[in-house]
Amino acid sequence: MTADHTVHTVRTVLGDIAPARLGVCDAHDHLFLRSPRLPGQELDSARTAADELAAFRAAGGRSVVQWTPHGMGRQAGRLPELSRAAGVHVVAATGLHQAVHYDPGLLERLRTEGLADLFVRELTEGIGHSGVRAGLIKVAGGFHGLDSHARRTMTAAAEAHRATGSPIAVHLELGTAGLDVLDLLCGELDVPAHRVILGHLNRSPDLSVHREAAEAGAFLAFDGPSRAHHATDWRMPDAVRSLADAGFGDRLLLGGDTTTADARSVRGGPGMPHLLREVRSRLELAVGEELTQRMLTVNAGLAFAVEWSGNDA
Description:
Blueprint: E1 3-12, E2 15-17, E3 25-29, H1 46-58, E4 63-66, H2 79-86, E5 89-91, E6 93-95, H3 104-113, H4 115-124, E7 136-140, H5 148-164, E8 168-171, H6 178-188, E9 196-199, H7 207-216, E10 219-223, H8 236-245, E11 252-255, H9 274-287, H10 289-296, H11 298-303, E12 306-312
């Protein structure tokens, strides 16, 4: 007689690990990133990426989830050596960002070839010729809504999720349209809410929206602190406290989201270590050490686990 069971692993660039092995995790960041929207600020130096990862490790970090999707300079082939050298687990992404980050010709070719097939291939076989398998699917919404590109990529992401059990991480433009995303992914496309990670909620500190998203079962990422012209950092601890008081402390994640060269700590910016040197202490004052540690460890392991079914004899 057999019994179905679900296996949970986190797919790093060096192979699958148990979720508990992630340790202190930056749930959303970038070692490499290139976009026409950020000219002259490319994250494309392997040496600087290594230095930043080492600084994160020195601050107590043990894992980084890179949300850089297809076609944005992921440099997947470099990630395993960087991970080994720093002693930091790294998770890579497949998926697509907003259309403005791509050449229209590339998008048309990808759509013709099949987005879901691309995502599944990068999750199961590897990214390009690197052999590095992605561990999550990254997609993006728009400002207070979802355009046709977002709906197309999210539909493909849902198909890839069903085929692989991989989580779906969503860039919310300025923290908006989170409920629209859940209506599409979880309502129309039947993705379980606990397999969806909503990013950038700190950029729109609407506590009622945060609570509704948490009630639906999604993970909520508070990521990208200390951005220039973002006056919402001071409200983030209150948002986290509100969600924790309502019983949703197990749905919360923390990330740095370094997207430009000048923002790196090794270039004088906050960078990856800022999450542990500054943000962590502020949150500990607001919600305590135990919950802050859970957000950085246990929650990340749950959110980024790949779920697949097996059988016990």
